[in-house]
Amino acid sequence: MTTTIRAAATPPRTGAPRAGARPFGLARHSLSLAGRSLIKTLRTPEQLLDVTLQPIVFVVIFVYLLGGAISGSQHAYLEFLLPAIMVQTVLFASVATGVSLNTDIEKGVFDRFRSLPIARSAPLVGSVVGDLVRFVVCITVLFAFGYAIGFRIGTDPLSTLAACLLTIAFAFAVSWIGVLLGVLMRSPGAVQGTAFLVLFPLTFGTDMMAPSDTMPGWLQWWVGVNPVADVMAAARGLIIGGPVAGPVTRSLLWTVAIIAVCAPLAVRAYRRRA
Q1: Closest by alpha carbon to 194, among 99, 65, 62?
Q2: How many C-beta neighbours within 10 Å does residue 215 have?
Q3: CB within 8 A of 32, min separation 6: which ones?
Q4: How confident is the model at residue 32 (pLDDT cuts 50, 70, 90)?
């Protein structure tokens, strides 16, 4: 009888962790799932083709086909272009986060995550954090190739590192847009197509390839309000020299704003889908 009463008094265990029992549970679970994402990438290295070959292809196409016509000097154009290419290619690499997430959802992997005693947002955070290594690989390959063909830093190593970290932080924010699309869309192809539809006007509607004062008025206005243009301006200022305070401040504000809006929406959409 006593045993029966104790068993009835004991609350049933559920799949969700107790509130306050593990204050650092979200961080620990997210890092564990980020490790899963990293292992998956290492086991299928072809997933790194877009962050290893794409930066090189963009530099070769723009510098050697357009450099002489736009700047009159391919070397001068390389100095102008490479920091902006760094931002563009890292943002394109962030699309893979949403595609991979949608693939896992369609395969039922996230159904297994929902049965575990972890926070519902941990799989989403883990996916975004796990893809940070792709951004690091992209930037490393880009700078290595740039140095091989003559690019040189115009400031100092610490400023260049700051530019890389700022770019990664902004790409981390944009990855949450991909996560939101990955949760909402029905197929990985739809996620990729929609994400590039969003990113193309943001990345090419900038002064990446030519100064904005050569553009028509309506396009100059778009460059002026485009957050990606701010990140590119900040990267140029930190790497080759130029205005830094204004572009960096606006870039950080955009980064915080995108995360503050898209991350809660992505988590909410994931919970509703669950």
Answers
A1: 99
A2: 15
A3: 126
A4: confident
State how far the Cα of 266 lies from the Cα of 249, in Å rounded to an integer: 26
Arithmetic mean of pLDDT, 27-37? 76
What's the mean pLDDT in 14-21?
A: 42
What are the pLDDT digits (tens) for 228-238?
999 999 999 99
Quick one: three-class SS letters along the chain? CHHHHHHHHCCCCCCCCCCCCCCCHHHHHHHHHHHHHHHHHHHCHHHHHHHHCHHHHHHHHHHHHHHHHHCCCHHHHHHHHHHHHHHHHHHHHCHHHHHHHHHHHHHCHHHHHHCCCCCCCHHHHHHHHHCHHHHHHHHHHHHHHHHHCCCCCCCCHHHHHHHHHHHHHHHHHHHHHHHHHHHHCCCHHHHHHHHHHHHHHHHHCCCCCCCHHHCCHHHHHHHHHCHHHHHHHHHHHHHCCCCCHHHHHHHHHHHHHHHHHHHHHHHHHHHHHC
Confidence of residue 126 (pLDDT cuts 50, 70, 90): confident
Show the tokens assigned to 43.
């086991």
* Portion of the chain with pLDDT greater than 90, in percent: 43
